[in-house]
Amino acid sequence: MKNSIEAVVFDLDGVIIDTEEVWEEVRRGYVAEHGREFLPDSQDRMMGMSTGEWSAHLADEVGVPRTAEEVAADVLGRMAGRYREALPLIPGSVETVRALAARYRLALASSSARILIDQVLATAGLTDVFEVTLSTEEVPRGKPAPDVYLTAVAKLGLTPEVCVAVEDSSNGLRSAAAAGLTVVAVPHGVYPPAEDALAGAHLVVQAITEVTPEKISSL
Hints:
Layout: E1 7-10, H1 20-33, H2 42-46, H3 51-62, H4 68-85, H5 93-101, E2 105-110, H6 114-124, E3 132-135, H7 147-156, E4 163-167, H8 170-179, E5 182-185, H9 195-198, E6 203-204, H10 213-217
Parallel strand pairs: 1-2, 1-4, 2-3, 4-5, 5-6
Helix pairs in contact: 1-4, 3-4, 4-6
Protein backbone atom coordinates (compact mmCIF):
# COMPACT_ATOMS: atom_id res chain seq x y z
CA MET A 1 0.00 0.00 0.00
CA LYS A 2 1.37 3.42 -0.97
CA ASN A 3 2.18 5.78 1.90
CA SER A 4 0.41 9.14 1.81
CA ILE A 5 2.86 12.02 1.59
CA GLU A 6 2.81 14.23 4.67
CA ALA A 7 5.82 16.54 4.21
CA VAL A 8 8.09 18.06 1.57
CA VAL A 9 11.77 18.69 2.33
CA PHE A 10 13.39 21.30 0.11
CA ASP A 11 17.00 21.85 -0.79
CA LEU A 12 17.91 25.56 -0.98
CA ASP A 13 20.72 26.27 -3.46
CA GLY A 14 19.66 25.41 -6.99
CA VAL A 15 16.04 24.82 -5.97
CA ILE A 16 14.82 28.02 -4.29
CA ILE A 17 17.75 30.30 -5.06
CA ASP A 18 20.04 30.05 -8.08
CA THR A 19 23.39 30.37 -6.35
CA GLU A 20 25.55 27.56 -7.70
CA GLU A 21 27.21 29.97 -10.13
CA VAL A 22 27.65 32.54 -7.37
CA TRP A 23 29.29 29.94 -5.13
CA GLU A 24 31.64 28.91 -7.91
CA GLU A 25 32.51 32.51 -8.82
CA VAL A 26 33.19 33.50 -5.20
CA ARG A 27 35.25 30.39 -4.38
CA ARG A 28 37.23 30.47 -7.63
CA GLY A 29 38.05 34.15 -7.09
CA TYR A 30 39.08 33.49 -3.51
CA VAL A 31 41.30 30.56 -4.50
CA ALA A 32 42.91 32.60 -7.30
CA GLU A 33 43.69 35.45 -4.91
CA HIS A 34 45.77 32.98 -2.94
CA GLY A 35 47.64 31.80 -6.05
CA ARG A 36 45.88 28.46 -6.30
CA GLU A 37 43.55 26.78 -8.82
CA PHE A 38 40.51 24.55 -8.47
CA LEU A 39 41.15 20.85 -8.97
CA PRO A 40 39.33 19.37 -12.01
CA ASP A 41 36.59 17.91 -9.81
CA SER A 42 36.47 20.57 -7.09
CA GLN A 43 33.18 22.19 -8.15
CA ASP A 44 31.32 18.89 -8.51
CA ARG A 45 32.66 17.60 -5.21
CA MET A 46 31.82 20.74 -3.26
CA MET A 47 28.17 20.85 -4.38
CA GLY A 48 26.39 19.37 -1.38
CA MET A 49 29.37 19.43 0.97
CA SER A 50 28.91 20.99 4.40
CA THR A 51 30.76 24.18 5.32
CA GLY A 52 33.40 22.23 7.22
CA GLU A 53 33.89 19.83 4.31
CA TRP A 54 34.28 22.34 1.46
CA SER A 55 36.44 24.70 3.49
CA ALA A 56 38.73 21.76 4.35
CA HIS A 57 38.85 20.82 0.67
CA LEU A 58 39.98 24.31 -0.31
CA ALA A 59 42.53 24.49 2.49
CA ASP A 60 43.91 20.94 2.45
CA GLU A 61 43.51 19.76 -1.13
CA VAL A 62 43.42 22.92 -3.23
CA GLY A 63 46.10 24.43 -1.02
CA VAL A 64 44.73 27.80 0.08
CA PRO A 65 47.20 28.89 2.80
CA ARG A 66 44.53 29.46 5.44
CA THR A 67 42.95 27.15 7.99
CA ALA A 68 39.63 25.57 7.08
CA GLU A 69 37.95 27.77 9.68
CA GLU A 70 39.48 30.90 8.15
CA VAL A 71 38.49 29.80 4.64
CA ALA A 72 34.90 29.26 5.77
CA ALA A 73 34.69 32.67 7.43
CA ASP A 74 36.23 34.42 4.41
CA VAL A 75 33.99 32.76 1.82
CA LEU A 76 30.76 32.94 3.86
CA GLY A 77 31.37 36.64 4.42
CA ARG A 78 31.65 37.18 0.68
CA MET A 79 28.53 35.10 -0.01
CA ALA A 80 26.50 37.04 2.57
CA GLY A 81 27.62 40.24 0.87
CA ARG A 82 26.44 38.98 -2.49
CA TYR A 83 23.06 38.00 -1.03
CA ARG A 84 22.65 41.46 0.47
CA GLU A 85 23.27 43.01 -2.94
CA ALA A 86 20.70 40.82 -4.68
CA LEU A 87 19.02 37.56 -3.70
CA PRO A 88 18.95 35.34 -6.81
CA LEU A 89 15.55 33.72 -6.32
CA ILE A 90 14.60 31.14 -8.92
CA PRO A 91 11.46 32.37 -10.73
CA GLY A 92 8.36 30.86 -9.18
CA SER A 93 10.18 29.24 -6.27
CA VAL A 94 8.58 31.31 -3.51
CA GLU A 95 5.11 30.78 -4.96
CA THR A 96 5.78 27.02 -5.28
CA VAL A 97 6.91 26.77 -1.66
CA ARG A 98 3.82 28.63 -0.45
CA ALA A 99 1.48 26.49 -2.56
CA LEU A 100 2.95 23.30 -1.11
CA ALA A 101 2.86 24.73 2.42
CA ALA A 102 -0.91 25.03 2.09
CA ARG A 103 -1.17 21.24 1.86
CA TYR A 104 2.00 19.74 3.36
CA ARG A 105 4.36 20.26 6.24
CA LEU A 106 7.67 21.71 5.03
CA ALA A 107 11.31 21.35 6.01
CA LEU A 108 14.57 22.63 4.53
CA ALA A 109 17.73 20.50 4.28
CA SER A 110 20.55 22.64 2.91
CA SER A 111 24.31 22.51 2.50
CA SER A 112 24.46 26.26 3.10
CA ALA A 113 25.68 27.56 6.44
CA ARG A 114 23.07 28.51 9.04
CA ILE A 115 23.85 32.22 8.66
CA LEU A 116 23.07 32.07 4.93
CA ILE A 117 19.93 29.93 5.33
CA ASP A 118 18.44 32.37 7.84
CA GLN A 119 19.30 35.37 5.71
CA VAL A 120 17.80 33.89 2.53
CA LEU A 121 14.54 32.86 4.21
CA ALA A 122 14.16 36.23 5.90
CA THR A 123 14.80 38.14 2.68
CA ALA A 124 12.42 35.88 0.72
CA GLY A 125 9.72 36.08 3.38
CA LEU A 126 9.73 32.33 3.95
CA THR A 127 11.01 32.05 7.53
CA ASP A 128 7.63 31.03 8.98
CA VAL A 129 6.77 28.58 6.19
CA PHE A 130 9.25 25.88 7.23
CA GLU A 131 8.72 23.91 10.44
CA VAL A 132 12.31 22.66 10.34
CA THR A 133 15.40 24.19 8.74
CA LEU A 134 18.67 22.31 8.85
CA SER A 135 22.20 22.94 7.62
CA THR A 136 24.60 20.13 6.88
CA GLU A 137 27.03 21.88 9.25
CA GLU A 138 24.59 20.80 12.00
CA VAL A 139 24.84 17.07 11.23
CA PRO A 140 27.86 14.71 11.18
CA ARG A 141 28.19 14.42 7.39
CA GLY A 142 27.20 16.52 4.41
CA LYS A 143 25.50 15.35 1.24
CA PRO A 144 25.69 12.74 -0.40
CA ALA A 145 25.45 11.13 3.06
CA PRO A 146 21.80 10.89 4.20
CA ASP A 147 22.35 12.62 7.55
CA VAL A 148 20.68 15.98 6.84
CA TYR A 149 17.54 14.39 5.39
CA LEU A 150 17.26 11.78 8.13
CA THR A 151 17.62 14.47 10.78
CA ALA A 152 15.12 16.82 9.13
CA VAL A 153 12.55 14.03 8.90
CA ALA A 154 13.16 13.04 12.51
CA LYS A 155 12.69 16.64 13.64
CA LEU A 156 9.32 16.62 11.89
CA GLY A 157 8.46 13.46 13.84
CA LEU A 158 7.91 11.53 10.61
CA THR A 159 9.48 8.66 8.68
CA PRO A 160 11.21 9.00 5.29
CA GLU A 161 8.48 6.97 3.60
CA VAL A 162 5.96 9.80 3.97
CA CYS A 163 8.33 12.59 2.90
CA VAL A 164 9.31 13.99 -0.49
CA ALA A 165 12.67 15.66 -1.18
CA VAL A 166 13.11 18.33 -3.86
CA GLU A 167 16.71 18.42 -5.10
CA ASP A 168 18.84 19.55 -8.03
CA SER A 169 22.44 18.35 -7.61
CA SER A 170 24.04 14.92 -7.81
CA ASN A 171 25.04 14.84 -4.17
CA GLY A 172 21.68 16.17 -3.04
CA LEU A 173 19.77 13.56 -5.01
CA ARG A 174 22.03 10.82 -3.66
CA SER A 175 21.56 12.10 -0.11
CA ALA A 176 17.76 12.12 -0.30
CA ALA A 177 17.61 8.72 -1.97
CA ALA A 178 19.97 7.21 0.61
CA ALA A 179 17.71 8.56 3.36
CA GLY A 180 14.72 6.78 1.82
CA LEU A 181 12.64 9.79 0.80
CA THR A 182 10.64 9.98 -2.41
CA VAL A 183 12.86 12.14 -4.60
CA VAL A 184 11.82 14.87 -7.03
CA ALA A 185 14.67 16.12 -9.24
CA VAL A 186 14.79 19.62 -10.67
CA PRO A 187 18.05 19.42 -12.66
CA HIS A 188 20.12 22.61 -12.77
CA GLY A 189 20.68 23.82 -16.31
CA VAL A 190 24.34 24.76 -15.81
CA TYR A 191 25.29 22.01 -13.36
CA PRO A 192 23.17 18.99 -14.39
CA PRO A 193 23.25 15.98 -12.06
CA ALA A 194 25.03 12.77 -12.98
CA GLU A 195 22.96 10.05 -14.63
CA ASP A 196 23.32 7.67 -11.70
CA ALA A 197 22.04 10.32 -9.28
CA LEU A 198 19.14 11.24 -11.55
CA ALA A 199 18.21 7.57 -11.86
CA GLY A 200 17.31 7.53 -8.16
CA ALA A 201 14.60 10.16 -8.60
CA HIS A 202 10.93 9.18 -8.64
CA LEU A 203 10.00 12.27 -10.67
CA VAL A 204 12.07 14.60 -12.87
CA VAL A 205 10.74 18.05 -13.74
CA GLN A 206 12.32 20.88 -15.71
CA ALA A 207 11.31 23.76 -13.44
CA ILE A 208 10.44 24.26 -9.78
CA THR A 209 7.01 25.57 -10.82
CA GLU A 210 6.17 22.04 -11.99
CA VAL A 211 6.39 20.76 -8.40
CA THR A 212 2.71 21.20 -7.64
CA PRO A 213 0.60 19.79 -4.78
CA GLU A 214 -1.14 17.60 -7.35
CA LYS A 215 2.12 16.07 -8.56
CA ILE A 216 3.30 15.50 -4.99
CA SER A 217 0.04 13.77 -4.08
CA SER A 218 0.41 11.42 -7.04
CA LEU A 219 3.80 10.11 -5.93
